[in-house]
Amino acid sequence: MRRVDPRVVLTAAMAVGVFANAAGAAELKVLHAGASTELVQAVVPEFEKQSGHKVERKRDTVGALTKLIEGGEPFDLCVLTTAAIDELIKKGKVAAGSRTDLVKVGVGVVVKQGAPRPDIATVDAFKQAVLDASSVAYIDPGAGGSSGIYVAQLLERLGVADALQSKTVLVPGGAVAEYVARGEAELGIHQISEILPVKGTVLVGPLPKEIQNYTAYAAGISASARDRDAAKALMTL
After folding, report:
1. Number of separate domains in the chain
2. Residues with Cβ < 8 Å from 73, sequence gap 6 or more?
3. b/e sequence 187-199, b meaning 16+ C-beta within 10 Å
4. Whole-model pTM?
5. 27 with 56: CB under 8 angstroms?
6. CATH number for the domain harbouring residue 118
7. What is the pLDDT of residues 9-32, one digit of tens each?
8. Are residues 40 and 130 in the same domain?
9. Helix (H, G, I), strand (E, B) or coil at 109
10. How many Cα neighbours within 13 Å face the side chain of 57?
11. What tens digit of pLDDT does each residue of 159-195 get?
12. Dihedral over alpha carbons 13, 18, 24, 28 (to 10 degrees)
């Protein structure tokens, strides 16, 4: 079994499954949410090497990918939140019985490498850290990203949303940490699996446990997959 960076909060990992004697190479299209990128990138190259299959990947927010799938976007395998997969199964877009649970990812805080690391050990410390920051970045909730929706709700719940309004950097999609690395935001709040791979940044740490949020991700095979066996091999636990 292949595991992603152990610092990421994971409860399971995707392993490579191959059909060494497959009659012919398949071309698979994988739609995956940003938080699962590191996992997908860790698995796909070896899968292609061992199986001879080719994989086309498309990354976006869970909301955006769900809309694409509901609109008829062709795909063979998708990696989305468990809730999104279940909904797509109900709508006949993902094959019933194909859901395979993969990972559970927590939310963390990121700053630029070399910058002071704020204290986020407690809820009050986290609140003060975001209030003290010159700018705070997170995924635009309107883009359908799981972490952005949660962070926006969290800041409202903590009573700091209004104070942060003028210095909030809403990221339409992709890695919040990249904005921090480029100096476009002093502090970022995003899923830990999307922070760790970005060079030039430092993970300050996860959110305090009282306000932590874990998002579970799963893979599902398209109800109209071109090669269901190959898709199943890619997501084999």
Report:
1. 2
2. 31
3. bbbbbbbbbbbbe
4. 0.76
5. yes
6. 3.40.190.10
7. 333 333 333 333 344 567 899 999
8. no
9. strand
10. 18
11. 999 999 999 999 997 789 999 999 999 999 999 989 9
12. 0
